[in-house]
Design a protein that fits this description.
heterodimer, A: 207 residues, mainly alpha, 0% strand, B: 243 residues, alpha+beta, 44% helix, elongated
Chain lengths: 207, 243
């Protein structure tokens, strides 16, 4: 794999992360990060959709009339999301129920359309596909980090396993932070991640 | 030949072709996957009924624990006892309820399972509640939802939440009170209350309302069933006394 193609895959994980650098897809990052499991499945679903939306749009890019390209993008993304939803319902019914309405809401995730518009329409299919995977993974990564802290501090558990209870922290007078269960805390955690991330990557700091 | 990709004719043809292709693709996928999806849904309903009765669905099958599937009318009389028809009514509990037909499942041990259907915060919520043969004590409950917020309202589906129901009672004397999901924590001495979900107050209210609204249609049936149970046990007592 050429190093340029590889960069499409790895850049969105940190230096060009969709959530903490491009500030895209914040809305769903707030909604599905109360627990780890839905956050992971949501990250994977978004990865599949961004990858294939990028691939399809990149294949179509020469023939798409630029005046209706946004509509074409929406049709492709919506069709993919419906397909993913149908397949999940038929083969992994439990997971599909866990994600409920958020599978449908992938359509409105800014990352998907953002990458199609910004990348897939100007680049070759393979590069676009990798870019889609990378961005989906970058999004999923932030979701998992946020969900880790929210579930651990808010419910005292990880993947539903009552970790604090087993450690006996409650007997020492510890109490779960109920505030963590509310969406504003996800925003604050995302803010903290951005803070740490920019402290390390000084080139991202605005002058 | 180089097309002008911005001419009106091209745009119109492009859109029509695109929409037709996508429509065909999605229809094929939907039709092809439908049997599997329906099977999943039917299996899930049966599993939920088994779970509501307090059995482990992995080891106990529906046929082992459920004796009869019935449709009742508003007076509590049995109008249909064909299993297929009852499950058909279960496809849309809301519609069959409005049509005056109420599905109920009788377990082999005399308990009953009643399907629930109501409104959560974002969409429908539903479930099954099992009542012991006294038609008052909750044996178990299974709750499910379409679009409640994961981690908040969707917590009604967790075993932790559902474990609070067994042993609670739905009647206060002769009056049906249902089970209330109490915000701020249930009063331990109140047999009709369980804890509400933190951050899921609207969903919790929806569950409280659903339990009461659904059970109320079965009150005539419960009364009749209770009378039968009591009669049987009285007869047994008399017989025993006679000896």
């Amino acid at each position: 794999m050429a190093s340029k193609s590889l960069k499409n895959l790895t850049a969105p994980l940190s230096g060009n992360n969709p959530v903490i650098v491009q500030i895209l897809g914040i809305c769903s990052a707030l909604a599905v990060t109360v627990q780890l499991k839905p956050a992971i499945v949501m990250g994977l679903s978004v990865m599949v959709v961004t990858a294939f939306a990028n691939l399809v749009m990149s294949l179509l890019r020469k023939g798409v009339p630029s005046r209706i390209r946004i509509i074409v993008q929406l049709v492709v993304i919506a069709a993919l999301v419906i397909l993913v939803d149908q397949v999940l319902k038929a083969f992994v019914y439990d997971v599909s129920k866990q994600l409920s309405v958020y599978v449908g809401l992938i359509i409105t995730n800014c990352i998907v359309m953002g990458r199609v518009e910004a990348f897939a329409l100007q680049n070759k299919p393979w590069d676009s596909f990798l870019d889609g995977i990378g961005n989906g993974a970058g999004y999923g990564l932030i979701l998992v980090i946020v969900a880790f802290f929210r579930e651990l501090l808010g419910s005292g558990s990880l993947f539903g396993y009552p970790i604090f209870e087993k450690l006996g922290l409650y007997e020492l007078g510890y109490a779960n932070c109920g505030l963590m269960l509310f969406p504003p805390m996800a925003l604050i955690i995302v803010g903290c991640i951005i803070w740490i991330h920019r402290t390390i990557n000084t080139n991202l700091q605005e002058k | 030949m180089k097309f002008n990709t911005n001419s009106n004719v091209y745009i119109i043809i492009y859109s029509v072709v695109m929409v037709v292709i996508v429509a065909v693709l999605l229809s094929l996928a939907a039709l092809g996957l439908k049997p599997r999806q329906d099977e999943n849904i039917l299996n899930e309903k049966k599993t939920q009924i088994v779970k509501a009765l307090g059995y482990d669905a992995a080891t106990t099958s529906y046929d082992e624990v459920v004796a009869e599937a019935l449709l009742l009318n508003a007076d509590g009389a049995v109008v249909e006892s064909d299993v297929a028809k009852v499950f058909e009514a279960l496809q849309s509990v809301k519609d069959s309820r409005e049509a005056g037909s109420f599905p109920i499942f009788k377990a082999t041990d005399g308990s009953v399972v009643v399907p629930l259907y109501g409104a959560g915060l974002w969409g429908p919520i539903w479930g099954y509640v099992a009542l012991a043969p006294d038609m008052n004590t909750v044996k178990g409950i299974v709750l499910d939802h379409q679009g409640e917020t994961p981690g908040l309202g969707a917590e009604i589906t967790t075993p932790k939440h559902q474990a609070m129901y067994p042993g609670k009672t739905v009647f206060e004397g002769e009056e049906l009170v249902g089970i209330t999901l109490k915000k701020g924590g249930a009063d331990e001495n109140n047999p009709h209350e369980v804890d509400a979900i933190t951050g899921g107050t609207k969903t919790s209210d929806g569950v409280s309302a659903m339990i009461k609204d659904c059970l109320v249609s079965y009150v005539p049936y419960f009364a009749a069933a209770k009378a039968t149970t009591e009669q049987v046990s009285n007869e047994l007592n008399t017989e025993n006394n006679g000896k």
